[in-house]
Amino acid sequence: MTTDDSLDSYFQQVQDIILSRQDWITGLLPASTAVNVHGNYTDAWVRDNVYSILAVWGLGLAYKKTGANPSRCYLLEQSTVKLMRGLLTAMMRQALKVEKFKHTQNPLDALHAKYDTKTGLAVVGDHEWGHLQLDATSIFLLMLAQMTASGLRIIFTIDEVNFCTKFSALREPSVSHA
Length: 178
Prior knowledge:
Layout: H1 3-17, E1 35-36, E2 39-40, E3 44-45, H2 46-66, H3 70-92, H4 95-104, E4 114-115, H5 134-149, H6 158-166
Helix pairs in contact: 1-2, 2-3, 2-5
């Protein structure tokens, strides 16, 4: 089996398992397609979306490195951009919460950790569900930086730059040493 054959095999798996579920408007991925007696799992969780798109991005990097099938490379890269921009847009709708959280460190002021896959809107109110999942926001920001460094153009506007830089001022509350 050649490298191209291996990449094509992985591409088919990524297409069937991940990209076939990507919302064509928001770019977000549902955690599951299941709606059953235990609940509706079709929301887009930040952490799950970032981890899932890593497979897509990584395969795109492999296609780029080998020079095999530039159209597939482009599709994988643009699917990655679409998802990351979808998460960025969803988070930017809550920009005021970032500023408030900096001062209060109250979990109710944290960014939401899941969004409606079709709209990118928050799916529950601030008091209805725990949103303090800083690891999800952190992995999003880390991968946003890594993907940008790899050459993907994810951030388009100065407003998006400003939103992302707001996080640099977030710090753990200081501990006084008496």
